[in-house]
Amino acid sequence: MTGVVYKRMASFARSLVLLVLVLGVGACKLVGLNSGSSSWHGTIDGIVGGTVSGTVSGLSGTGLVLQNNGWDNLSISANGSFTFGTGITSGASYSVTVLTQPGSPNQTCTVTNGSGTVISASITSVQVSCVTNTYLFYKNPLSAVDPANSTVSIAIEPPGTAIDNVTAIEDGRYLPAPSYLVSDRHYRTIVYHKTSAGTLWKVNTLTGGSLTPVQVSNESTATICATQGAPDYANPDNAEFLYRLPGADGICGNADDVWKMIKVGMSAADAPYAAFQPLAAVRDPVTGAISGWLAINGSSLNAYDANFGNPVLVSTFTTSASKVMTSSDGRIVLNIDSSLRVYNPNASPAVLSGTLYTVSSSIGNAVRDNLNLYFSDGTSLYKLPLDGSASAAALATGAAGGVNSMMLTDNRVVWTNNSGATLMSVSKSGGAVTTLGTTWSLVGTAGNRIYYNTLVFIFGGSSVYTAHVINDDGTGHTQLNNAVWTALEPTTVDYGRTSNSLSLDTVLLREGAAAAPFSLSSYDAASHTVIASLGSFPADMNSFTNYYFMKLPNVNNLLVQAYSSSNGSYDVLLLNTAVANSMVRVTNTSAVNETPVGASGCSINARAKLDPTLIVILLSAIGCMCWRARRSSAKPG
Predict the structure, then answer these.
(1) CB neighbourhood size of 529 (10 A)
(2) If you compute the radius of gyration of the chain from its CA atoms, what whole number of angstroms results?
């Protein structure tokens, strides 16, 4: 009996020693995993492991801390690749989250591809994207709303303060060649004119910063005729605010008008720069900084430095000179005395091409992709290489009804005719024109999808709106009755694109028949799938107009202006396009029209009662005006 017990104890001891040895070797190899090498993986009795790594983009603040599996923390100080120091064995899960969001400026970072199971190799696909948090602003009085605390409005100027020419200047992250992308687009600075003092003021939009307005320059003028903001992607303080003043006759719009420019980083003691009628900002192709201007002085088109100094003659003209489009690499298509020519400011020396097309009527519409400019002249469509390497070629001639609003899908040029009633498309390489249907408002495109609205007037005073989606070849048509689409600008674009050249990320759908409340939903434009049902408008809001187009990816906050029948004025709401039931009312005031700063859009009031003939003409025109307003509102050049 004793011998049996002894043998069993000896066998158990040998097994215990073997187990200790295996665990010891395994522990040594697991310590090797903690080295943080992203390329290490090994085997322990068939166990395969690796590390968890990825890439951070858009980071401009400090203090970002990532966490894996609820305990493994990693501080991030710069954009680029990262690797957690602790390895993961095969079959184990990983879950990367943001433990601490960055500040100075405040940002929201989100993780994609952040969770899963390690199978046989290191994980390298985690993506962390950061965007800048900003206040949203509205006028009357000028006020700010923090999306994180939407119930509180912060007055920038006291009620009754007379201001005008409120201009939102954007900022973003510029990526040089080959992408020339501007990402994380957001309004960085609000500049405005105090009419009582004649002075210019600015306020910083970044949350966590001061909302106290600061005087910019020693300008003192009672009247400003027009303004234009130009971002500087290398240094926001070098962003420029251009403004036009009446000349000696005191009347805006005459030949003696005077242009001036300030940089938003100026103090109250700094004098403005003398400027000239701007056509286009010229940018450093590496940094995105403003390096100069193309501007008109008399009958000369000149290239200037960033301060409108050191003029160099580009061309003289007899009748007119205007900008048609800017390419992503900074080339500028010009219309000089009805001749289309391409100016390359970044060549050494800068060069202006010869005539690439002679305009017979007028350039009514123009859009572009990365390679070509597509434009209309009278009733015909043409294509012009943006690098100026060839003359323009006809895509479609004698387009029925002429060409009105124009946009691009991935493969085709899309437009409505001048009556606003017919939607058509043609291949970017030319060929037969396809008639897609009737429309009164071309909203936008995403991939090969086209979003548009139609209106049917019913005799007796009511109207029926229908939202449509169709592929650019005429297939896949879907309609939503008693609904209207509205487009939001994407926050990542290639430099120089105008709004009607952009592929949409998100569209909003207002739904409801003649009786309020209307509901609002957000859709992913590329897939035409619902993102979120955002809620219903308050019962007293029976139409909505302007939209704050600078939505931020992964933040998605948006101000909406809507008409209150009980107040007899326009109020403001806040929503987040990614969050269900997020729509909340910000203002509720009588006889005061609050308007989002940086907003554009149009009235689509389903209760319009007009003569049937007049309403068709009017709403066709409104459909065109809506898009043109968006095109001129927020663009990165």
Answers:
(1) 8
(2) 29
Domain with 456, as residue range(s), is: 440-637
Tokens of 117: 């199971």
Q: How far does CA 601 lie from the centroid of its chain?
A: 15
Instruction: Show the tokens assigned to 445.
Output: 């495109």
Residue 258 near residue 275 (C-beta atoms within 8 A): no
Tell me, yes or no, whether 62 and 174 share the same domain: no
| Total structural domains within the chain | 3
Do residues 71 and 142 share a domain? no
- Predicted local confidence at residue 628, as pLDDT: 32
Query: Is residue 118 in a domain?
Result: yes
> Could you give the residue ranges of the DSSP H alpha helices within 94-217?
none
Domain identity same for 169 and 276: yes
In sequence order, what E strands does 318-379 have?
A: 321-326, 332-336, 339-344, 351-352, 357-358, 363-368, 372-377
Give CA–CA dist 581/522, Å, rounded.
Answer: 11
Element (H, E) at 25: helix 2-33
pLDDT at 632: 32
Residues 95 and 146 occupy one common structural domain: no
Closest to 552 in 3D by CA, of 58, 52, 45, 20: 58
Q: Are 92 and 164 in contact (CB under 8 A)?
A: no
Residue 625 sits at φ, ψ, to 5 deg, of -65, -35
Spans in the chain with pLDDT lower than 50: 1-46, 544-554, 601-637
CATH number at residue 104: 2.60.40
d(CA 637, CA 634): 9
Q: Are residue 197 and residue 312 in the same domain, yes or no?
A: yes
Contacting residues for 382 by C-beta, under 8 A, at least 6 apart: 357, 374, 375, 376, 392, 393, 394, 395
Same-domain check for residues 562 and 596: yes
In a domain, 391, yes or no: no
> In whole angstroms, what is the distance from residue 338 CA to residue 363 CA?
9
- Identify whether 396 is part of a domain: no
Inside any domain, residue 395: no
Of the residues 316, 349, 366, which one is the last residue of a structural domain? 316
Per-residue pLDDT, 417: 83
Q: What is the pLDDT of residue 119?
A: 83
109 and 191 both lie in a single domain: no
Cβ contact 199:219 at 8 Å = yes
pLDDT at 419: 67
pLDDT reported for residue 19: 39
Last residue of a domain, one of 68, 97, 132: 132
pLDDT at 515: 57
Q: How far is CA 242 from CA 137, 169, 250, 428, in A?
A: 21, 11, 19, 36
Task: Return d(Cα 281, Cα 298) in angstroms, integer.
Answer: 19
Pairing between β-strand 339-344 and β-strand 321-326 as defined by DSSP bridges: unpaired
Q: In 3-state terms, what secondary structure has residue 620? A: helix
- Whose tokens are 């479609």? That residue is 396
pLDDT of residue 29: 36
pTM assigned to the model: 0.83
472-524 per-position pLDDT tens digit? 999 999 999 888 898 887 878 888 777 777 889 999 998 886 555 789 999 99
- Burial of residue 472, with CB atoms counted within 10 A of its CB: 0-12 exposed, 13-18 middle, 19 or more buried: buried
Same domain, 211 and 288: yes
At residue 499, the pLDDT reads 72
SS3 content of the chain, % helix, strand, coil (to 5): 10, 50, 45
Contact 442, 405 (CB under 8 A): yes
Bridge pairing between strands 181-194 and 493-494:
antiparallel
